[in-house]
Amino acid sequence: MIIKEILIKNYQCYYDDKRFEFKKGSNIILGRNGAGKTKFFEALEWLFSNSTKDLDELVSKKKLHETIQGNSFNVGVEIIVEQAGLRSTIKKYFGVKKGVEKDFTTTNIIYEGIEENESGERESVDGLNLLNRVFPGINRKYALFKGEAELNILNNEDALLNLINMYTKIKHFGPYAEKGEMFRKYAEKAVDDATKGDEKNNKKLKTLENEINELKRSIQEKEIFLSTKYDERTNLEENINGVEKHLENAEAVETIKKRISDIDDNVKKLESKLDEDYTISLFDKGWFLIYFESIQKAYKNKIDALSKERRQLQRNFDTAEGIKEGERRAQAALFKDVIPLPNGTPSSSIMEEMLKDQICKVCNREALIDSPPYNFMRKRLDDYLLSQKPRDENDETISDLFKSNYTNRLVTLGATQEDNLIKIRTIAQTIKELFEFNQEIKLRIAELRDKKENEISDLENVIGNSVLGQDSLSHAYKNYKGWQKDLMAVDKKIEDYEKESSDLKTRLKQKREEKDSIDTKSVSSFLINTRTILRDIETIFKETKETKYDEFIKVLEDKANYFLKKINESSFTGYIEINRRYAGSKHMVNVTLMQEGERFYHPNTSLLTSMHLAILFAIAQLTQADKEESFPLIFDAPTSSFDPVKRKYFFEVLGNCNEQTILLTKDFTETDKTINALLYSDEFKNIKRDKAILIKLEEPFHPEILSTINTELINL
Amino acid sequence: MAKEDELLTAFLNHRILVEKYKISASDLPKTIEDGMKSTVPIIAAITNIVKGIQRRPIISDNELQKQVIDLINRKG
């Protein structure tokens, strides 16, 4: 099938009817960004899809603007294809009725089909059915490629097998493998039924069957586990490889960050040692006393002098007081003419006893009451007692010279201060040492800060030299370490599973042989022979299918590598390796870009794109040989990452491609500033193509007003 | 080469026929027609299956199976 024409009508930037005519081979649509290339591609996607949404968005604003209120027009896409020489037309469109100002309404989507029969007559048919007949959905899926990302048609594990099954003769081998298995199972059952006829065999056989089934189940389980682990390993290797290129920087970042962190810790420690609470020390530690010794000395001199003077005054005072007291007492004695109880007289108690007993015990004579001796003793005693009485306030008292002994306290204080002088004398040294210590710490902190500045500068350099930022590098480093660990664990698991799987297979083989020996002994050769041959037939069918797959994959790999080399002529390419593996009951195909026997991780976009294109061309070429029908390949900007050299080779490959190709590209266009006209480059003149169309926005247009936008076509 | 002949040839190229059944490569039939004439049960059976699956009208699995078993044992 080839696309002959595509008509886009009032669809977004395509105002009125825009008809693209295509040739069988290579068709190139050139246009700068915003000219309508992607809208062309999307119009095709819209035609091929069942989408009925957002019709309002599809309406040409220019057409809407120019339509008079109440009038209608159609919006849609029409494709004319040719298949086996017969033309089919498929239209998808909807009506638009203009309302007030910018308002409008849309009708439902309508599909129309016109089919040409062998006699050249044309008849109307259901458009959607016709589309699905001439260009089936599964083929459409592998026909349109938007951008570079969509070129990876093998983006899932089933994709290649699907393509092979769809487009190659290999699909014919599939039913034989199934039939072979079915017949073999029938033969197995016939033998089992015959064997079970014997009671003894029956029991044994059942046990063996259970064991065999269990072993098969375990093997399948192990293979699924293994497959998962292989994928896990591939992913981990890919991740590790992806990070490895950043690892040097990541490690450098980690090392520098560690050094910065150590510096910060050291600074923190040093800062905690700094003692700069000078105000507190001034009072709490008595630093303000640093010059106190001279003051204390002056104080002490003054106090000593004062104390001396005080003592002198006190002495003088005491002397004067003593004289006064002596005089007073002498005066009193003279006045009273007695000396109260002079020496040698009995004590007052003896005197009282003598008066009580009325006898003088001094002279041992009687002294009766009221007798002169008695009265004498009485008077002497009374005088004495009177003399011993404290002076009352009215008496003349001896006053103190100083009411308080402050001088003594000042002296004591001076002495205490003198004791503290030892400490005070160390204050200056303490302050000096502390200042020196703090200075030393500050110097070390300053040195560390300088060092940190250098480290930060190194860090910035490392980050500047990396495509990743600091956080990403840190993550990369941590991930790398984690992935390495995971990889070791996965490898160990794979080793274990492989060993377990191998052991299980050995046991399964033994059990099968055991079962076969029971069958052989107890069942007729007719059944055994049938089973043996059907087992072999199943093996032949299955293995032939596998062989065909492998042969196809090998040829595909060779072809893909041929195209890869062609597109990347004179550049490094590596090589494509396509592998098939079996996971449980499922085949999986892996496509890998290799170099020198190792996986080439993370190729640049350009190489990756060319790899996808190479596979795509290889599949198209290989499958074309097998299939009866071919379908166009439509690319929107597939070569954005290609340089001119690669682009040249790509178009060379495209020009030699047997499929019809339609390629939309912004390449080869340039503007002649003198006449402000869009041209195509000289390079394009040498590009092999069958048809080229230049699309551009009709001049003049307003860059901010959609209703002035119209894409026009120029056939080159 | 007809599709069924291609398929038959692909199956008959399997090593098991040479290694286990000791059939010389030159004795292997190239067409369905030749295969149907084979006196080797496994070749006759394979040929019959290829024919049964490719040709129209389609025959049932049971019928095909019966034919295959007969071929294996008739000629075996």
Radius of gyration of chain A: 59 Å
Strand content of chain A: 15-25%
Determine the structural class of chain B based on helices, strands and strand pairing.
Answer: mainly alpha
> What is the H/E order of chain B?
HHHHH
Question: How would you summarize what this structure contains?
Answer:
The complex is a heterodimer of chains A (716) and B (76). Chain A is α+β, with helices and mostly antiparallel strands and 716 residues long.
Any key phrases for this structure?
heterodimer; A: 716 residues; alpha+beta; 18 helices; B: 76 residues; mainly alpha; 0% strand
Q: Can you tell me about this structure?
A:
The complex is a heterodimer of chains A (716) and B (76). Chain A is an alpha+beta fold. Chain A is 58% helix and 17% strand. Chain A has 18 helices and 20 strands. In chain A, strands 1, 2, 4, 5, 6, 7 and 8 form a seven-stranded antiparallel beta sheet that branches. Chain A has a six-stranded mixed beta sheet with strand order 9-15-16-3-19-20, with helices on one face. A three-stranded antiparallel beta sheet of chain A has the order 12-13-14. The longest helix of chain A has 75 residues, at 199-273. With 76 residues, chain B is mostly helical. The longest helix of chain B has 15 residues, at 61-75. Chain B is globular. Chain A binds chain B through residues 169, 172-173, 175-176, 179-180, 182-183, 186-187, 526, 529-530, 533-534, 536-537, 539-541, 543-544, 548, and chain B through 3, 6-7, 10-11, 13-14, 16-17, 20-21, 41-42, 45-46, 49-50, 53, 61, 64-65, 68-69, 72-73, 76.
